[in-house]
């Protein structure tokens, strides 16, 4: 049964949408695995993954199965009741991590909002209102609500919306001395991405995260890891904190957690969770059965040795070829990142041109991302086929060949 829809085009975007995005000239209509087709029937290889969301590619059979089964069972019931998919997903997240309690919501920003509110609530209850300061990193990204842009270290996202949330300090990332100088007994939380995603695909130094953990313990501050982008297998470990062996007090997840269905989660310990007592926080859609059923299928597939080992092998395949392409065309030198979150750092002559490279790549039939103006980012499906990696990188190489000839 197929509904007849009114025809729409890219040009309609400018007539009907708030102009806060600048989408590409083509409109994707269908996806399968790591391939996407646009309205004209043109096929593209997807190394963008919906910005690190489509961790199992497009229309993965396990996810389609979970979604359609749940769609025929129960869609929404609200948090006046609990539901089976939410309880099962919470148990799986707890079994797989440090966490003992889970709060579900609908996005990364909301997971962070819950994390920051919990950190402040804990400090307020245990030590009083003075202990409310949050330290975060310059260039970090934590979402677009007022609290999360205030904690995020990019003024371009937080300026111009009236007074920001107070009590937030920013320090340079991977600079332990700066963190040491900033932290005090008024600090309630230190918030870090174990790999800065939007800020340029910059992994933390081992000593930095270990040092941050120690400083938090010394000052009774909570360590919050934003794993919205780095989590759910992206780094080759289920969560990146496990790769480093540095355990946070609170962790936020979203993006790949739903594999394309909107869901976010905040993970924490039971001792901290008890500070969000009945009525202190909530969201209508949080723990929605459809979202949780899909996320349960996502974690079932990803949290297996095959997929996680596969991420590391595919990382090798990507970086080997990318390094060769970067050298050959002189566009980028360093390829950094972890697992399948990779960034090509543009050389001096190409600085600021990440968007031009994205457009050239799309013209050759491969979707990639930028992470700021100076880094080309790859966040493909964690189960992308080797043949798709090779073909997509051949297209990427053709794009660079054309750009450098021009
Ligand atoms: C994308 C992202 C967010 C925001 O997630 P939304 O779902 O867009 O609200 C927060 N933190 C990090 C690290 C992200 O990459």
Automatic annotation (TrEMBL):
Gene3D superfamilies: Aspartate Aminotransferase, domain 1 (3.90.1150.10), Type I PLP-dependent aspartate aminotransferase-like (Major domain) (3.40.640.10). It comes from the Bacteria. Keywords: Amino-acid biosynthesis, Aminotransferase, Arginine biosynthesis, Cytoplasm, Pyridoxal phosphate, Transferase. CDD domains: OAT_like. InterPro entries: Ac/SucOrn_transaminase_bac (IPR017652), AcOrn/SuccOrn_fam (IPR004636), Aminotrans_3 (IPR005814), Aminotrans_3_PPA_site (IPR049704), Class-III_PLP-dep_AT (IPR050103), PyrdxlP-dep_Trfase (IPR015424), PyrdxlP-dep_Trfase_major (IPR015421), PyrdxlP-dep_Trfase_small (IPR015422). Signal peptide: none annotated. Pathway: Amino-acid biosynthesis; L-arginine biosynthesis; N(2)-acetyl-L-ornithine from L-glutamate: step 4/4. Binds 1 pyridoxal phosphate per subunit. Its EC number is 2.6.1.11. It catalyses: N(2)-acetyl-L-ornithine + 2-oxoglutarate = N-acetyl-L-glutamate 5-semialdehyde + L-glutamate. It is found in: Cytoplasm. One of its GO terms (molecular function) is transaminase activity. The keyword Secreted does not apply. N(2)-acetyl-L-ornithine binds at residues 144, 283. Pyridoxal 5'-phosphate binds at residues 108-109, 141, 226-229, 284. The modification N6-(pyridoxal phosphate)lysine is found at residue 255. Homodimer. May also have succinyldiaminopimelate aminotransferase activity, thus carrying out the corresponding step in lysine biosynthesis. Belongs to the class-III pyridoxal-phosphate-dependent aminotransferase family. ArgD subfamily. This is Acetylornithine aminotransferase. It comes from Pseudomonas benzenivorans. The lineage of its organism: Bacteria, Pseudomonadati, Pseudomonadota, Gammaproteobacteria, Pseudomonadales. The gene is argD.
